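Notes to self, Sterol desaturase family protein:
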Amino acid sequence: MLAQEPVIRLTAFAAVLLAMALLEHAFPRRPQRLGWRRWPSNLGLVALSAIMLRLIAPAGVVGVALWAEARGIGLFPAFGLPFWVAAPASVLLLDLLVYGQHRLFHAVPVLWRMHRVHHADPELDASSGLRFHPAEMLLSLGIKGLGAVALGAPPEAVLAFEVLLNATSLFSHANLAMPARLDRVLRLLLVTPDMHRIHHSEIPAETDSDFGFCLSCWDRIFGTYRAEPERGQLGMVIGVEGFRADAAQRLDRLLVQPLKAEP
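result:
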């Protein structure tokens, strides 16, 4: 299975992206002005990131986990934990690590400038879940790699986590209208679109809430959970002031945006 890691990840990514795009078209949550016109830039960012990461670290986080496993490095091997314990614990703790990383990228100014590219999307849909600056993706790979080594996470669990993280990022950013009851039930476990959309509000107190990507429990545990936006799902303003113009959504502008100070 691990030998087919790129195929597994690409297949899961394409399937979830297509499913979300179709569902968004059928059941849109908010009206959009730009809509699909933002997709070339958002997809361009993820394509550049994928090329860069394959050139710099072709084995990715799974490769790092394989390297650690071959040397018996990490917390789980040290305690002799069986696979059936180490695998789910790895997925859980790596998701916690990504939650912490997300908060860090909001708290440190130089990291926020990179992460701001993601927040500067004036509309949210599945493509927003791909809109990350290549420099942020490289740093994220390093953080996840260190986490995998420290835990001694099984490579199979790391692959499952990477696929899950990508899929839930596409889902949580989708412009998808869901029945309120279904949203409440799913939100007990997963970050839903209505929950994560609050994190993209222009109101600072809302931007600094709902940091989770996959599991919703971390926001509840660490006190960053917000159930509803102040202005409602249809009234809230998304994006970052000064970066909402159509021209600011061009790929070249997104790549140099971290060099620009806050407006």
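- The CA atoms of residues 61 and 145 lie 5 Å apart.
- The radius of gyration is 18 Å.
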